[in-house]
Amino acid sequence: MGNWIVNHWFPAVVIAAWLGLNVFLFVYYFLLFDRDKKFYYTRVLLGSALAWARASAKCLNFNSMLILLPVCRNLLSFLRGTCSCCRRTMRKQLDHNLTFHKLVAYTIALFTAVHIIAHLCNFEWYNDSQQAADGSLSSILSNLHQDEESNKWLNPIHSNSTTPAYVTFTTIPGLTGVIITVALILMVTSSMEFIRRSYFEVFWYTHHLFIIYFAGLVIHGIAGLVRGQTAESLNKHNPEHCAQDPTHWGRKNKHSHCEEPEFGSIPAESWQWVLAPIVLYVFERVLRFWRSQQRVVVTKVVVHPSKVLELQMHKKGFSMEVGQYIFINCPSVSCLEWHPFTLTSAPEEDFFSVHIRAAGDWTENLIDTFQQQKPKTPRIAVDGPFGTASEDVFQYEVAMLVGAGIGVTPFASVLKSIWYKFQHADQCLKTKKIYFYWLCRDTGAFAWFNDLLASLEREMEESGKAGFLNCRLFLTGWDNSIAGQAAFNFDKDTDVVTGLKQKTFFGRPMWSNEFSAVATAHPRSVVGVFLCGPQALAKSLQKCCHQYSSLDPRKVKFYFNKENF
Fold first, then answer.
1. Distance CA 84, CA 65 (A)
2. Full DSSP string of 151-179
3. Could you give the CA distance from residue 115 to residue 50 in angstroms, rounded to a whole number?
4. CA 13/CA 26 separation, integer angstroms
5. Cα(415)–Cα(477) distance, rounded to whole angstroms?
6. Which of the residue ranges 265-279, 328-342, 365-379, 448-462 would you say has the lowest mean pLDDT?
7. Which of 100, 125, 109 is nearest to 50 (CA)?
8. pLDDT value of residue 445
């Protein structure tokens, strides 16, 4: 139950609070614009569409304020560091930053649709009121102060020949609204999983339209087309009373005296909502740029099987923790594109390294560039490191590390760090047992960290802690010759596939059996489950974490953690 609270209940509370604020803002401002005396005459022209437009605009501002915060990587790393002494539950929420970013983005898209539909109705009703010549209240209001330069009018359409389309493309609110909408559509559609995975460059470049989005948002409301009655006019003209007889406005009679109402624009407020996060994000980008200009020396280049490139680098002042990641830019491939890669080196080493698998145009071009430009290496720029869930590995008594293919990289850093800790007899190591699962489609992938795993096996045996690390390697793709060879050599001391003492399993793990065994072996431990792999595997592991965590707070608990960057 405790694990369910951490993985489900607490994130749900955060999301519920965010949704609650959205609902509050929408309802509050909907009722304000639907009932406030100041907008009495505006509602005569527009009806409830006024409230729909303004309430959705407030929610747009609120979510636009939030959208940049989850992608401020330096801010998240700072918070993760300052929360190192906080409860595990609090720190885990930082791992949901991209999920929250997507939720906020979809909410912006929803309220944008509501805002657009409401204003399309508003433009039509403004136009209908202007065209009317029947002496109705809406007709009278539309013609008030139209010929004056006092800017006290209510209807922004001043001529019978003016169309809603003309207002849309010739006014600041209309034109910026179109630009904002186009930018938002491009950003949202290019963020779809298929496009982001298959055409990352499209996602990368279109996402930078956020600059146009925020620029348009800030100036969107400065023209003040939607108006309300001024406070001074309300003192002289009570719309609830005076609206009954608009023909006598400005004329004195013995019963009442109502001056002509005067109207003013609603002040632009979007900039007040987004100014602070924009400044914070600008500082973030300046910091990234400054760090990217620092010199990086590539000390070693290794091309592993399955077209995986290992880069060992050195950068003055670079400091890392296990499981962290960096962003890499190679101007020889693309001056603008930055891609994230998990660090595979340990904090104890005097260099930092990444393993890059060919998984798209950029990575393939990068590998080809390094292979073609020997002995001269291309220039590399690095931003980071940034924190992830894997930083908390050593906070658990027992850890289950699950890597799928190249997803093993964060755990290579963890395993290397363990090797160094045993070398130096680190007495502060809280972790007592590590279960390491590596799932690969082909045998060549195991060669990436074969030497590391072999060194760890020897170190564990020599230090008398052979049971500390339990390596379980799974080959998910094989042919009959490999399986036959493995079966024929099964009685040998070393595995025919990896050369390790730990035998390779053929197929996929039965996770229910694995969790059951860990729960039985550690009945009173807190177990951290860490994954770097596909979403389908994440769902299976998360389900097992919930299923095998005891309701008794004194017994075994599984906490699920997934890499997100």
1. 26
2. ---S-S--STT--HHHHHHHSHHHHHHHH
3. 10
4. 20
5. 25
6. 448-462
7. 125
8. 67
Residue 55: the pLDDT is 96
Q: pLDDT confidence of 227, banded at 50, 70, 90?
A: confident
Both structure tokens of 266? 């609603």
DSSP conformational letter for 208: T
As to burial, measured by CB atoms within 10 angstroms (0-12 exposed, 13-18 middle, 19+ buried), residue 464 is exposed
What amino acid occupies position 94? L
Residues in a beta bridge with 352: 313
CA atoms within 13 A on the CB side of 492: 13
Phi, psi of 373 (to 5 degrees): -100, 25
CA distance linking residue 355 with residue 293, whole number of Å: 22
336: number of Cβ within 10 Å:
10
Q: For residues 502 and 461, what is the distance between their CA atoms, to the nearest angstrom? A: 13
d(CA 391, CA 380): 25
Tens of pLDDT, residue by residue over 476-508, are 876 666 666 655 555 565 665 566 667 778 888
Q: What is the pLDDT of residues 47-101, one digit of tens each?
A: 999 999 999 999 999 999 999 999 988 888 777 766 554 555 566 667 778 888 9
Cα 524 to Cα 531: distance, rounded to the nearest angstrom: 22
CB-based contacts of 114: which residues, under 8 Å, 6+ apart? 52, 56
pTM (global) more than 0.70: yes
Q: Which is nearest to 469 in space by CA: 485, 458, 479, 480? A: 458
